[in-house]
């Protein structure tokens, strides 16, 4: 694992690079006075609203709210992570990126690099076997029967593992260190009990699919049989460089092929990804033998606003789709879309796209079932919607799931739709939802109380801490419009961006440094930067934040409606900070009360034991 990039190098890089050169190399800019303008590369527009300020080394789009410095622009434009964007700019300037590493991290990086190197050799070996091995006709015919061209096989670096136990071992395992690297990379299997083959190839007589990480490095392989043998698919095992629950096949190729991805289609198999790419649909990924997880989806939503799940239309497919829906609900922030494409029985994406063609398949994607439609359709099938009892059951099943959706417009629209279906007005449903949340909080508090007193099964008579639900969501004065859909920390960040000097009185090393709330990491980062650069303007501060790993959380933050008058910024900021610190103190007090309760339980139990067994009695 690479070490951290020193902050002084990042500062120096930003000082040396000209943001105009960085952006003009990727999109056309025109000088307008002291600034430059052009069409925004991040949204479709006909009239230029994209501005670059060379004096401040900052860009901002007045249409979509995108903004930042040179590093932030490259991150957005090239779909790169923060360190990758720095490496991209540094490479264009002919500068090497230094790394701060401990001896342990350096050793880990060197070991991992050994694995990357041997896996790259494996790719070349399997590709050569597809071209030259005497039995290659079998593999070539199979790929042709699936409609694949030589070009698409090259783009995905497809290969062939011929029959036999030692093909890869004999080719690459020339010495003990090479054999150890192949074993650690998951390419060999060790069986000491087999004297004839104590080490042998993992992949034999299979089509080979290299799996790449987001930097294009080969980290593992998938192998598919060409007949009816089992298992049909075989993946590399977990290794130091491959964690299958986090990776997505085809994501690197999709990002490489399309500069700006608009949607991602999640399919089930390698061949589906490749067949769709063969038909000019280059935005497909597949999980690696696991169900789509929240981790997968969180990664995809950083790249695109829309995710489409593709499943068979049978019962098993719809059950899998429901599990995917449960994973995506907590990530459905405003502006994100999730759809479900159900295929006819007996078809997969590969067979369907070959049957109906690109245009029809893309049209089906655009008309795929919306999340809300699938949500209510699935739950509605479980009840009698013609009866009051059935509609009440639908509401009871729906509300806990709707609670998982982040607060915002989409959350409210789902609640409104439930109201339309059940005949209950949305305000009543909203109150019921809040009641469920309070019940859950009280249940958690009671659980903590039971834990403290479970030694003797009796409560202590102590006064419990204030219920968590009694903490107000906001301390805004009456009459001020509530800013819903954002955490208290994000509201505070927004206010700092409007007026950076409001942080001057804060002690960032004091109590506020212990905050544990949604988005508190970002708030502390922004406070530190604002205090370090007290004279920063809003664009300058936004640019500095955008260059940090947390900067992606600020996308379009300034584009949202500002409802706090300029003269009220300081007051509201102080109220939010006071609320956050009060909540922190309540939590600390609650933990202290639990510890006191536990001590009382043990003390009482000891006293009871002594009363039952006085000293001197046997």
Notes on the protein architecture:
- With 618 residues, this protein is of the alpha+beta class.
- It has five domains: 7-92, Zinc finger, CHC2-typedomain (DNA Primase, Chain A); 104-235, Alpha-Beta Complex (DNA primase DNAg catalytic core, N-terminal domain); 251-378, 3-Layer(aba) Sandwich (Dna Topoisomerase Vi A Subunit, Chain: A, domain 2); 382-438, Pheromone ER-1 (Up-down Bundle); 455-618, DNAb Helicase, Chain A.
- Helices cover 48% and strands 11% of the residues.
- The protein has 22 helices and 16 strands.
- The protein has helices at residues 7-16, 19-24, 70-78, 82-92, 103-132, 136-145, 150-155, 167-172, 176-184, 251-257, 270-278, 294-301, 315-328, 349-366, 371-380, 388-402, 409-422, 426-453, 488-498, 520-532, 538-546, 569-612; strands spanning 30-32, 35-38, 50-53, 58-61, 67-68, 159-161, 188-190, 199-201, 206-212, 218-224, 233-235, 263-267, 284-286, 306-312, 337-343, 369-370.
- The chain has a five-stranded antiparallel sheet.
- β7 (188-190) and β8 (199-201) form a beta hairpin.
- α19 packs parallel to α20.
- It is globular and about 80 Å long.
Brief digest:
The chain is α+β, with helices and mostly antiparallel strands. It is 48% helix and 11% strand.
CATH topology of the largest domain: DNAb Helicase, Chain A
CATH class of the largest domain: Mainly Alpha
Which parts are unreliable, with pLDDT below 50 for 5 consecutive residues or more? 444-484, 555-563
> Based on DSSP secondary structure assignment, what is the total number of beta strands?
16
* Sheet with the most strands, sense and barrel status: 5 strands, antiparallel
Mean pLDDT: 81
Name the CATH superfamily assignment of the largest domain: DNAb Helicase, Chain A
- Classify the beta-strand content into a percent band: 5-15%
Instruction: Give me the secondary-structure category.
Output: alpha+beta
Total domain modules: 5
- Kindly, what is the distance between the CA atoms of the first and last residues, rounded to a whole number of angstroms? 64 Å
Treating each run of at least 4 consecutive H or I residues as one helix, how many helices? 22
Supply Rg: 29 Å
